[in-house]
Amino acid sequence: SAGKMGLRWYLCVFVVSFVTLHTSQAVIDEKSEKCILLWGELQETITAEDRESNFKNVNCSAKANLFKADATSHLERMVRLELQNMVRFMHIASHFGRDSVSRLGFRDYFQKLSDKAWERSVKLVKYVSKRGDQLLHKGFEIQIDPAENFYVRETESLEDLLSVQKYSNRIAAKNYKHALNTKLIDPDLAHFIQDEFIHEQTEEIRQTSGYLSNLFMMLGSSEKNLGIHMIDNMLAD
Known about the structure:
Elements: H1 2-39, H2 48-57, H3 69-96, H4 104-130, H5 154-180, H6 187-219, H7 224-236
Helix pairs in contact: 3-4, 3-5, 4-7, 5-6, 6-7
Binding site for Fe cation: 82, 201
Function: Stores iron in a soluble, non-toxic, readily available form. Important for iron homeostasis. Iron is taken up in the ferrous form and deposited as ferric hydroxides after oxidation.
Family: Belongs to the ferritin family.
């Protein structure tokens, strides 16, 4: 009868669903068991190399397929650039903080930029760690020649800053394009670069170019020293 046929159909669906769920759970349990055995009781009986290899094979890490192998190297380049900017801006800030120069507005402004570069480098390291990888495998060194002093004038410091900001923005935009312009699109990486770097860098470039425009206009007047003093006070706000 129709009632019996309907009952049989529902029974078949239930059996198939149960078997599928049980099989999937078995696969999950098998992988979980491998992870537990690998990092639990047996971790002292296997080598570190085997442990790392098996860890990758059973896919216990947070590294998803979308996170391409070359993404780490691209982000590492951004980290190195931010760390270089951090030291560079700190060097400029220390110059303007000297008693013989005493441009405290410029000092505070470049010190804030140095702190910002450090924060961005930390964000990059944390993001790559969240995606299941690590940065700076070979370490990193920054060398600054103490004899070099390119920042005697206020205009030179802002011109140098604008050049550095544009270059950093170009590298971020290139990595953003790479995250979206490949066969394996990584929307999370693109979103991270856009929100944490490109948007802020665009605002910073506009701000620096505005300061330079005001400074050049004031330098063209007869009261250029007063103009520099006003810009210095503006940067201190």
